[in-house]
Design a protein that fits this description.
By secondary structure, the protein is α+β, with helices and mostly antiparallel strands. The protein has three helices and nine strands, in the order E-E-E-E-E-H-H-H-E-E-E-E. The strands form two sheets. A seven-stranded mixed sheet has the order 1-2-3-6-7-8-9. Strand 1 and strand 2 form a beta hairpin. Helix 2 crosses helix 3. It is elongated. The protein starts with a strand and ends with a strand.
């Protein structure tokens, strides 16, 4: 069972916690609401152009116990082997993308450098149990976050660096 530590909520009421994943990976986990909700301090005049049906009332959002259960269930699917495989795929895709822009890239050296630098830093869990892995690579991608969206089979669905 995945144990969440230092469980808290953000200003929107979404769960934030620390957790240790297989392989000794200590990360921050965040619950991401699937829907936007109307905050109590929203000004009705600012929303006059917005469709009222696009918002969910705060009381209709999941409670902390529901968010905790969703996060724990989603994270329990992440074995050490799956995390290792996704990390290798992220490294390979980033190195191959860099090689497309620069013909002089030594692929093996670039793979080794990124593999030594990259670390799983966080996981975002969505209400439906979907996940995005957040990686950092401070030497190779300083001040950037690598987002790896997983599909329902825990395969890489999309990769983005911001």
């Amino acid at each position: 069972m995945i144990e969440l530590e230092d469980v808290d909520t953000d200003e929107d009421g979404a769960l934030n916690a620390d957790v240790e994943l297989p392989g000794g990976r200590r990360v921050t986990v965040e619950y991401e609401f699937d829907e936007e909700f109307r905050r109590d301090d929203d000004d009705d005049d600012d929303e006059s152009d917005d469709d009222e049906d696009d918002y969910v009332e705060r009381e209709d959002l999941p409670d902390l116990d529901t968010m905790r259960a969703t996060v724990q269930h989603a994270l329990s699917r992440l074995s050490g082997e799956i995390l290792d495989a996704r990390e290798r795929e992220v490294v390979d895709e980033l190195v191959e993308a860099a090689a497309e822009d620069d013909d002089d890239v030594d692929l093996e050296q670039a793979r080794r450098a990124l593999a030594e630098d990259i670390a799983l830093d966080g996981v975002v869990v969505f209400g439906d149990g979907g996940m995005t892995l957040l990686y950092i690579a401070p030497e190779e991608y300083p001040d950037l976050i690598i987002y790896c969206l997983l599909d329902e089979d825990l395969e890489v669905d999309d990769l983005m660096v911001e």
